[in-house]
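User: Let's play a game. I give you a shape written as tokens, and you guess the letters that built it. Ready? Here's round one.
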């Protein structure tokens, strides 16, 4: 199963990942990070298809996607 890691302190709450996820499983937390932004998190990781759209869409490289042990992040493209 793909795994999503959100680096909470990098997130600025822009919601691009939320809009990009075809499974609609990336949401914004009601909690805030140290910068005062609501950060992204995955609500149901079991539905993730590993498409990496969330990581690609993030302007701050705050999301990493791991598929079968391989790490994908924005700079990998
Ligand atoms: S990898 Fe794709 S399906 Fe999984 S959380 Fe990111 S955008 Fe959604
Ligand atoms: S796209 Fe990146 S910065 Fe924007 S809400 Fe998602 S994780 Fe945070």
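Assistant: Ready! My guess for every position:
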């Amino acid at each position: 199963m793909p795994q999503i890691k959100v680096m909470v302190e990098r997130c600025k709450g822009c919601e691009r990942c939320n809009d990009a996820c075809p499974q609609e499983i990336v949401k914004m937390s009601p909690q805030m990070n140290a910068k005062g932004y609501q950060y992204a998190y995955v609500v149901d990781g079991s539905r993730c298809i590993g498409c990496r759209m969330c990581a690609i869409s993030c302007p701050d490289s705050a999301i990493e996607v791991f598929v079968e042990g391989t790490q994908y992040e924005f700079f990998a493209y």
